[in-house]
Amino acid sequence: MDLARYLRDVPDFPKPGILFKDITPLLAAPEALQAAIERLAALPVGKVDKVAAIESRGFLFGVPLALRLGVGFVPVRKPGKLPWKTNRVEYVLEYGTDAVEIHQDAVQKGERILLVDDLLATGGTMGAACQLVESCGGVVAGCAFVVELGFLPGRQRLGQRRVDSLVLVR
Q1: What is the pTM of this model?
Q2: In terms of DSSP bridges, do strands 112-120 and 50-54 run parallel, antiparallel, or are they unpaired?
Q3: Does 57 qualify as catalytic in the annotation?
Q4: How many structural domains does the chain have?
């Protein structure tokens, strides 16, 4: 199944000059959504103890993937959204900064974590999420994406970490 067929291009969103890759057609097609989860589950990352996913579209793939793998799920959220003690990492955007947080007890020392998001662009958010997992003592088993914008430097920004994507947009 060609998952790229289930992506919709939305010009000038969220601002002029951006061509947004919309995953909602993939989410609406049960056969495509199932294929995406199965392909993510089949990635050769070795044994994982938990799946962590980035708010909010990453959750759409991270939770069913965790269930499919039979492991727990860890939410990586924007600041102020988690109710317990958190670790926080700030990262640089094109214009300004942003941050993500994780519960301090979400990942135990030595646990292998598969990080998931819907799309890899510049890699800033995923890089911060990797730092969060590592700040808790976890090991990043890999970074998995449904879509990767290969013309942006996201993969390079993640350094030596394993990076897999189901659809590569050049």
Answers
A1: 0.96
A2: parallel
A3: yes
A4: 1
The tens digit of pLDDT for each residue in 97-148 reads 999 999 999 999 999 999 999 999 999 999 999 999 999 999 999 999 999 9
Q: Residues 17-74: pLDDT tens digits?
A: 999 999 999 999 999 999 999 999 999 999 999 999 999 999 999 999 999 999 999 9
Which residue of the set 57, 68, 157, 161 is catalytic? 57
How far, in Å, CA of 169 to CA of 120, rounded? 10
User: Would residue 33 count as lying in a domain?
Assistant: no
- Is-catalytic flag, 94? yes
DSSP track, 67-94:
HHHT-EEEEEB-TT--SS-EEEEEEEET
Report the distance separating Cα 50 and Cα 54, nearest Å.
13
Give the CATH number, domain containing residue 99: 3.40.50.2020
**CA 108/CA 150 separation, integer angstroms:** 33
Evaluate whether residue 27 is within a structural domain: no
Residue with tokens 């000038």: 12
Q: Considering the domain boundaries, does residue 70 fall inside one?
A: yes
